[in-house]
Amino acid sequence: MTTLEKAKHIAYIKALDDHKDFIEYWMSEHLRMNGLYWGITALFLLKHESEFQKDDVIQFIQSCYDETHGGFGSFPKHDSHLLSTLSALQILKMYDILDDTLTSEQRLSTVRFIKSLQLPDGSFQGDRFGEVDTRFVYTAIQSLSILEELDQGIVDGAVGFILRCQNFDGGFGMVPGAESHAAQCFTCLGTLAICGALDKMDQDQTELLVDWLSERQVISGEFSGGLNGRPEKLPDVCYSWWVLSCLSILKKLDFIDGEKLKGFILKSQDLKSGGISDRPDNQVDVYHTLFGIAGLSLLGYEDLVPVDPVYCMPCFVTNTIKKYPY
Q1: Checking phi first, is residue 172 left (phi over 0); if not, alpha (psi -120 to 50) or beta?
Q2: In Å, how far from its chain's centre is CA 281?
Q3: The dihedral sign for the CA sequence 264, 265, 271, 277
Q4: Which residues, in sequence order, are bridge partners of residue 132?
Q5: CA quadruple 98, 324, 139, 246: dihedral sign
Q6: Is the pLDDT of residue 23 over 70?
Q7: DSSP labels for 24-69?
Q8: pLDDT digits (tens, 9 = 90+) for 144-185
Q9: Long-range residue pairs from 192-196, CB within 8 A, at least 24 positions apart, any chain
Q10: Which residues does residue 314 pair with via DSSP β-bridges, in sequence order?
Q11: With b meaning 16 or more CB within 10 Å and e meaning fewer, what string describes 183-195?
């Protein structure tokens, strides 16, 4: 089996900010905060978190703070959004500088921003423009968990909405009645886990969910061993996280062939320049690089730092977060 090219992946992540001459760099502003989180988390799991200058990271995050609405945007002068707000908080938490970086007013306004986005049915909008998705429930709940600002009203509404998103096949969709998708299963299980509400799922439905998740592994063909997000789809390295984290939360990791999955992830590396792609021989990116490494961490690969399947941060970081109910 090919080994994980750690040094090349570290070099690849460090060089990601060196491409300002390319149009792709400027066209991806809307993902910049998320990209920073993906790269930094991968470095933490590889035990190389000091590769970026902490002061530079703080400066960038502060430059993305939305003075008008609270929370953080993906890039300076972008409006705040739950996705970029969570990434900013995760980065600050991993570096253990959350309380030192946020002023009391920034903290309060960020909490207000997040809570203001919950709708009467318990769901969350991603921002003030109104898109609703179980991703945003998860990002809101994890953000408030990191800030230790969850309360019963927020939790009860979120849990109720998540439970209504579970389908007849055991999976979860982005809203009630939407198609089951592995990434939505992660956001829904992650929300329930943070809220201490995994036991709210019906036992029969939980068993169906485990079966549905385990069936995501492709067992034959060119990409055997990989996991997909929905039936009849090609496997993708990112589902090494979205599916595997769910099985880990449910304590069912042994329901897939871990050795075959390791092989699929490792074959998706760029052995020359570093980085991991969605499947072998495709273009690498930092998103798949993180989730490939995180999947290997869940599988206990070599000496990677253990990753928390609920928060997608190192366990030594999440162990410092006070668990709800407080």
Answers
A1: beta
A2: 24
A3: positive
A4: 125
A5: positive
A6: no
A7: HHHHTGGGHHHHHHHHHHHHHHTT-GGGS-HHHHHHHHHHTB-TTT
A8: 999 999 999 999 999 999 999 999 999 999 999 999 999 999
A9: 192/159, 192/162, 193/249, 193/310, 194/141, 194/142, 194/145, 194/150, 194/310, 194/311, 194/324, 195/141, 195/150, 195/155, 195/158, 195/159, 195/324, 196/323, 196/324, 196/325
A10: 307
A11: bbbbbbbbbbbbb
* Domain positions in the chain: 6-318
- In sequence order, the β-bridge partners of residue 284 are 277
Residue type, 271: L
Helix then strand count (H, E) for the chain reads 15, 2
Predicted model pTM = 0.97
- Give 252-257's long-range contacts (Cβ < 8 A, gap of 24+): 252/210, 252/213, 252/214, 253/298, 253/299, 255/210, 255/213, 255/214, 256/214, 256/216, 256/217, 256/227, 257/217, 257/219, 257/225
- Pick 6-318's CATH classification: 1.50.10.20, 1.10.540.10, 1.10.287.3510, 2.40.50.140: 1.50.10.20
Structural contact between residues 310 and 318, judged by C-beta atoms closer than 8 angstroms: yes
